Structures are given as structure tokens and as C-alpha cells.
């Protein structure tokens, strides 16, 4: 446990100073809330018509504060996966691609422990960004509600905020398989390709009606991206299956790095 604690401290410090974290953190924490407020404003303005308007119709069915919180869940369901996937591609694919990982074999801490610490740090960072983004959206929604005399902040708003947090954390966990992909392919670019491919496959699965049990589709559907009927089709077991992806692939990743010999 001492080795893991040391590795976590070192990896957390390294991640805080990494280019990926410095660029992506403000994008997640600030751009996601801006997108939520903007999407709700567009939906309520009626300026977007056709296919685009149909996709935004669900964001104009309640008061503006609730709609902003619902939008937060929908945006974070995708943003958490994409940010986490890109981060893991950089965290594991880049050292393998350029040979820097050879130094891991000389460390006192075993390389599988280092890999575990690195994955946990990236997962915690992605989840923390999702929580922080939701907090910003809550502040925006509370301001919106305060400016609307016909809206009182209540438990429904907190429930929507809680769903947004859960969707963001679930999507962060769904990115962990791409750490295993990066280790297997030894290529950040191939990992990003797998991430984009997964998003495309998810769309196909949803169109075929299997999204309620496909982990990478569950957060988006649960937050109402596919409409109320699709959200109602996502039950507790599907959410548990989605949550199980993170620990399963964390174990896979650790096993990969424990067996890694050819660098």
C-alpha cells in the first residue's frame, strides 16, 4: 500500500502539470456549462428548426433551470467519455509509443502499481471535472430560477443535478477500457480511433434498439438524450452493468502492465 500511495502522489502531481490536464480541465468545467445554457436558450427560442430543432425539443419542456440541469447530464454523458478517452490515450499510449515507459522497469514501485495509480488519477480527474461542471451549471440554473418569479428551486432541480453528476462519473468510468486499448496497441492515435469507433458503434446499437443494455449508450439515454421513453427503458441493472465497466477494465489494465516485458 505504501508503494501505491507513493505512486498516486507522484502521478497526481505529474498529471496536474501535464498539457492534457491544463487544456482539458477548463474546457470541461467552463465550456460544458456554457453549452448547457446555450442549448437551452436555443431550444426555447425556436430559432432552430428541422432535425436540429427536433433534437432540442426535450430541452424546452420544463422551466429553464431544470432544462439546463438536464442538458448538463446529456452533455457530460458524452464529454466525460471523450475527455477520459483522450486522457488515457495520452497517459498510456504516448509512453509506450516513444519508449519512455522503459524507465518504469527500473522503478522500485512495480509497473503494474504505477499503471494502477495513473489510471486512478485520470479517472478521478475526469470525474472531478464532471462534478465541477455540474456545480457551475447548478449555479447558472439557480440564477435562472431566481430571475423567474414563476419558478421555485425544489427537489426536482437537485434530482436533475444529481443525475448529471452520476452520468458524468459513469461516462468517466467508461473511458477506462481505452487505457487497455492504448497498452495493447502502443499508440495514442489508434486509441483515439478506437474511441471514435466506439461512439459510432454506440449510435448504431441505439438505432437497433439495444442501447438500454449497452454501457456506452446508457448514460446518454438515461439522461433523456433519446427521449422520455428511452430514458424510462434504462433500469437499475443496466446502470450497475455500466458502473462495472470501470473496475473490470481497471483490473485488465493492471494485468496488462504486470505482464508487460517487451518495451
From TrEMBL:
Q: Does the keyword Transmembrane apply?
A: yes
TM segment ranges: 27-49, 69-94, 115-144, 164-185, 192-214, 234-254
Q: What is this protein called?
A: ABC-2 type transport system permease protein
Q: What is the lineage of its organism?
A: Bacteria, Bacillati, Actinomycetota, Actinomycetes, Micrococcales
- Keyword Phosphoprotein: yes or no? no
Domain of life, per UniProt, equals Bacteria
Q: Which UniProt keywords apply?
A: Membrane, Transmembrane, Transmembrane helix
Amino acid at each position: 500500500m505504501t508503494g501505491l500511495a507513493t505512486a498516486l502522489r507522484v502521478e497526481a502531481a505529474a498529471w496536474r502539470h501535464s498539457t492534457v490536464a491544463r487544456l482539458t480541465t477548463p474546457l470541461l468545467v467552463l465550456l460544458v456549462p456554457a453549452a448547457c445554457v446555450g442549448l437551452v436558450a436555443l431550444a426555447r427560442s425556436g430559432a432552430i428548426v428541422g432535425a436540429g430543432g427536433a433534437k432540442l425539443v426535450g430541452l424546452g419542456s420544463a422551466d429553464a433551470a431544470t432544462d439546463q440541469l438536464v442538458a448538463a447530464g446529456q452533455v457530460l454523458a458524452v464529454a466525460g467519455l471523450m475527455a477520459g478517452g483522450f486522457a488515457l490515450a495520452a497517459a498510456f499510449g504516448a509512453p509506450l509509443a516513444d519508449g519512455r515507459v522503459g524507465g518504469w522497469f527500473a522503478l522500485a514501485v512495480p509497473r503494474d502499481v504505477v499503471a494502477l495509480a495513473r489510471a486512478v488519477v485520470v479517472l478521478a480527474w475526469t470525474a472531478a471535472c464532471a462534478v465541477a461542471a455540474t456545480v457551475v451549471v447548478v449555479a447558472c440554473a439557480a440564477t435562472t430560477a431566481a430571475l423567474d418569479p414563476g419558478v421555485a428551486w425544489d427537489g426536482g432541480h437537485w434530482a436533475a443535478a444529481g443525475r448529471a453528476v452520476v452520468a458524468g462519473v459513469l461516462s468517466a468510468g467508461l473511458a477506462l477500457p481505452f487505457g487497455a486499448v492504448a497498452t495493447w496497441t502502443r499508440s495514442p492515435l489508434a486509441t483515439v480511433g478506437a474511441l471514435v469507433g466506439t461512439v459510432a458503434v454506440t449510435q448504431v446499437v441505439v438505432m437497433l434498439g439495444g442501447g438500454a443494455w449497452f454501457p456506452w449508450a446508457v448514460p446518454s439515454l438515461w439522461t433523456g438524450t433519446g427521449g422520455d421513453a428511452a430514458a424510462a427503458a434504462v433500469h437499475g441493472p443496466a446502470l450497475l452493468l455500466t458502473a462495472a465497466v470501470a473496475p473490470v477494465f481497471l483490473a485488465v489494465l493492471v494485468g496488462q502492465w504486470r505482464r508487460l516485458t517487451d518495451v
